[in-house]
Amino acid sequence: MSSILIIFYFLSAITLAAAFLTIYSKNPIHSAIYLVICFFSIAGHYLLFNAQFLAIVHIIVYSGAIMVLFLFTIMLMNLNKEDEVHKPRITRLGAIVVFIITSIVLITIFINSKTILGDYDVSGEDFQSIRKLGTVLLNEYMVPFEFASILLLVAMIGVVLLSKKEKTEQK
Amino acid sequence: MNNILNQIGIENYIFLSVLLFCIGVFGVLYRRNAIIVFMSIEIMLNAVNLLFVAFSTYHQDAEGQVFVFFSMAVAAAEVAVGLAILVSVYRNLGSIDIDNLKNLKG
Amino acid sequence: METKLALVLLLSPFVGFLFNVFFGKKVSRVVSGVIGTLTVVVSFLLSICFFAQLNLNGKPFEISLFDWIQVSNFKLEFGILLDQLSLLWLLFVTGIGSLIHLYSISYMHDDENMHKFFAYLNLFVFFMITLVIGSNLLVMFIGWEGVGLCSYLLIGFWYKNQSYNDAAKKAFIMNRVGDLGFLIGMFILATMFSTLNYSELKHAVAAGDVNTALLGVAALCLFIGATGKSAQLPLYTWLPDAMAGPTPVSALIHAATMVTAGIFMITRMNFLFDLTPDVQNIIAIVGALTALVAASIGLLQNDIKKVLAYSTVSQLGLMFLALGLGAYTVAVFHVITHAFFKACLFLGSGSVIHGLHGEQDMRKMGGLRKAMPITFWTMMISTLAIAGIFPFAGFWSKDEILMVAFEHNKVLWIVASIASIMTAFYMFRLMYLTFFKEFRGTEEQKHHLHESPSLMTIPLVILAALALVGGAINLPGSMWLNHFMEPILSGEHETHHLGTQEFILMGIALVGAIIGIIWANAKYIKQAFVPKVDSEIVGFNKTIYNKYYVDEFYTFLIVKPINSLANFFRTTLEQALGKVVFSLGTVANGLATEGKKLQNGNIGLYLFAFVIGVCAIISYLFITHTAQ
C-alpha cells in the first residue's frame, strides 16, 4: 500500500467521522466544530489532488467565513443548550432507510458507468496551477464570474434587509 | 507528474463522495434543529465539490475546478441568506424547530 | 305574377294570424274578427281566379319556391302545385272557411279571447292551404302537422276546463300516432324513389320494376296516417271528444276540412294505391266498418254535437269505402257535398246551442221549430241531404258510393246500406227531438228563445243552398267532376251508364232512407218518445251509449301501462340515477380528503418526499438507460 493511499484513507476516515458526528451530536456548537474539522479534511483531499488554490480558497471560504457565520448565528440564538426533542421514531427509521437506499442507488449508478480500464492518462501539461485556473476563469468563464459577483452583492443586500429588526411602534 | 488517481483509483473517491452525500441527506431528514439541517446541506455541497475535483483530475481539465469555484461562491451566498431567514424565523416564532413551521398546512 | 298570387293565397291567412296575435287585443273584437274573415275571403277569391284559369287552359300551375333539402341523391323543394285536385279542395276549404269565420264573429262575440280564436282559425286555414297546395309529400306533411296543432289549440280553446284540455290532448296524440304511420310511409317512399314530389313519384312508380311488397307497406303506413287524421277505426275516438271546442271549430275542422285531409292524401297518391290492391281492400273494409260502427253509436247519443260527430265519422267511413274501391272521384264528390251539409248542420246546431245559452242535451230541447225558423229550415235541408233523399246533394254522392260498392263487393254494399239507413234514422231523430213536439227545457230558456243574428244565419242559408243544389257538379248526365278530375287520376275510371241496375240501386237506397225516416217519425213523433236519463239506460243500449267502451279499452291497453311506466321512471329510475351521479361527487370528495393529508405543512415530510423522488427519478433513468 502506497503512502498516498494511507493518507487518503486517513483523511477519508476523518471526513466521514466528522460529518457523522456533526449530525449526531446534541450540542450545536459541537456540531459546528466537527464540521470545521470535516472541512479541513476535505481541504487535505484537495491538496492531495495538487489543487492548491482550491484548497486555500476552501479553507478561507468554508472554515473561515461560513462556519464563523454559523457560530455567530448559533450564539445569537443561544443554542448552546441541548434541549432538542427528537423526531418521531418512524421518521428516524425512515431517515435511516432513505440513507441506505440513496447510497445504494448512487453507488450503483456510478460504478456501472465506469468505462475505463487500465491507466489513467497523464497529459503532462499543467491544468490546475493557479495561473491556468485564472486564465480559464477569466477567459472562458468570464460571464459566470461577473454574475457570481452580482450574486454575492445581491445576497449581501438581501441578508441585510432580512435581518433588519422591524421598527416597533413604541419609541 | 503522476496522476494521483493511479495510486488511489477513482472508485475510492466515488465511494467517499457518495457516502458523504448520503450522510448529508441523513442529517437533513434526521434532525429537527434547523441549524443542523443547514450544516448537513453544506456537507452535501462539499461532497459534490470533492467529486468535481476528482473528475477534474481524471480528465486533466481545469473546468471541474472552475465549477467548484462557483459552487463555493453560491454556497457562501446561500448560507448567508439562509441564516438570515433563520434569524427572522427565530425572531417570529421563538424557536428554530422545523416541525413548528406548519402554517402552510392545507 | 302567378307566383305572387299563389304566395298571397298561401300567406293571406297567415297575415291574419299575425295581426290577431300582435294587435288583436288592441283593436275591438269586431275588427279582429273582420280582419280574420277578410284574409280568408282573399284566399277564396284568389282560388276562384286560379280555378277559372285552370278551366280555361287546363294546365296546372306548378312552381318551386326554393330548394329545401338536398342530401346525396334526394332532393326536395318547397313547391306549390295548383292542379284540379288542390283547387277543388282550396275552393271549398276557403269558401266554407270564410263562411265560418263570418259566423264566428257573431258566435264568439262575447268571448274575451275572440282575437285568439280568430288567430287560431286563420293559422288553421293557412296550414290547411299548405297541406293542399304542396307539390310533394313533405310540404303536405307540414300542413298535416300544422292542422293537427291548430286542432289541439282550438279544441282546448276554453282551456280553463280540464276535460276540454284532455280532449284536445287526446286529439293531438291520436293524430300523432297516425302521423307516425305517415312518416314511415314517407321514409319508405323516399328510400325507394329518392323523391317525394308527386309527379316524380307518379313516373317512378309507373316505371315498373318496383318492389310491390315494400310499396304495399308504404301505402299501408300512409293509410294509417289517414286513419288518424280522418278518424277511422281504430283512431276515431278523438273526434267525438273534440266536440268540446266551440261549434265553429267543429264545423270547420271536424266536418269540412281537417278530417278530409286523409282523403285528399289518398286521392293525391292514387297511383300508389292503385298498385297495391291489398291495401285498397283494407281501406275499403276499414271504411265500411267505421261507417257501421259510428252510425250505430250515433243512434243513441243525446248530445246534439256528438250525434253530428259520429255522423261525420260514419260519412268519412263511406268516403274511405269509395277510396278503397278505387273510385276516387266518387269519394271527392262525397267530400264536397258532405262539407256543405255537415258544415250547415254544425253551424245550425251552434245556432241552437247559442239560442239555448249553452244547452247541448237534446232531451232538454224540443219544439224549436217556431222560435228559430231559419235554423230549422236550413238544418232540415241539410238533414234531407245527409239522409240521401232525391234531389238533394247527398243523394247523388252517396248513391254513387253504393253503386260502386255493389259492383265490387256485395257484402260491403250491404254494410254501407245499413249505415245509410241508420244515418237517416238518427239524423231525423235529431231533428225531431230538437225541433218538434214541445219544449222540454227550463222556463227561463223558453222565454229567451229567439232566432240567431243574421251573421249566423247568412252562412246557414248559403250552405243550405249549396246542400240543395250541390249535386249538380256530378250528375249522372254531365259528370262534370269526373271529367274535371281525369288528368290527375292514373287508373281507368268507370263511367256509370244509367242502366236498369243503377236505377234499381237508386231506388233501394231511397227506400231505405225513407224507411229510416218513417221509423224515426214513428218513434219520436207518434210515440213522443224521449230518451231516458243517463242512469236509466240499460242493457245493449247502454253498451252502445257508452261507445262500446272503446275509450275504456284504450285507457286500459295503452294509457295505464304508459302511466305506470312513467311513474316507475319518476320514482325509481330517477332516484337511482341521481344517486349514481351524486356518488361521483362523493368519490371525488373522498379522494380529495385523503389527498389533503399529504400537505400537512411538515417540512420533514416534504424533504422526505423530495429525496425519495430524486432517487426514484435517477433509478428510473438509470434503468431505462441501461436497458437500451
Question: Main attributes?
Answer:
A: mainly alpha; Four Helix Bundle (Hemerythrin (Met), subunit A); 2 domains; C: mainly alpha; two-stranded antiparallel ribbon
Protein model, in words:
The complex is a heterotrimer of chains A (171), B (106) and C (628). Chain A has 171 residues and is mainly alpha-helical. Chain A folds into 2 domains: 1-110, Up-down Bundle (Four Helix Bundle (Hemerythrin (Met), subunit A)); 126-164. Chain A has helices spanning 3-24, 28-48, 52-76, 89-112, 130-139, 142-162. The model of chain A has no long low-confidence stretch (mean pLDDT 86). Chain B is an all-alpha fold and 106 residues long. In chain B, helix 2 (10-30) runs antiparallel to helix 3 (34-59) and helix 3 runs antiparallel to helix 4 (63-93). The radius of gyration of chain B is 18 Å and the shape is elongated. Chain C has 628 residues and is mainly alpha-helical. Among the domains of chain C are: 546-592; 598-628. Chain C contains 25 helices and 2 strands. A two-stranded antiparallel ribbon of chain C has the order 1-2. In chain C, strand 1 (61-71) and strand 2 (74-82) form a beta hairpin. Chain C starts with a helix and ends with a helix. Chain B binds chain C through residues 25, 28-29, 32, 98-99, 101-106, and chain C through 596, 599-604, 607-608, 611.
How do you describe this structure in short?
Chain A has helices at 3-24, 28-48, 52-76, 89-112, 130-139, 142-162. With 171 residues, chain A is an all-alpha fold.
Q: Which structural class should the secondary elements of chain B be placed in?
A: mainly alpha
Helix content of chain B: over 70%
SS element count, helices of chain B: 4
Please tell me how large the radius of gyration of chain A is: 22 Å
Shape annotation of chain A: extended
- What name goes with the CATH superfamily of the largest domain in chain A? NADH-ubiquinone/plastoquinone oxidoreductase chain 6, subunit NuoJ
CATH topology of chain B: Helix Hairpins
Distance between the termini of chain B: 60 Å
Going by CATH, the architecture of chain B would be: Orthogonal Bundle
Estimate nothing, just give the exact number of structural domains of chain A: 2
Write down the secondary-structure element order of chain A.
HHHHHH
Number of strands of chain B: 0
User: Count of helical segments of chain A?
Assistant: 6
Q: What's the end-to-end separation of chain A, in Å?
A: 71 Å
Helix content of chain A: over 70%
Instruction: Provide the CATH top-level class of chain B.
Output: Mainly Alpha
CATH topology tier name of the largest domain in chain A: Four Helix Bundle (Hemerythrin (Met), subunit A)
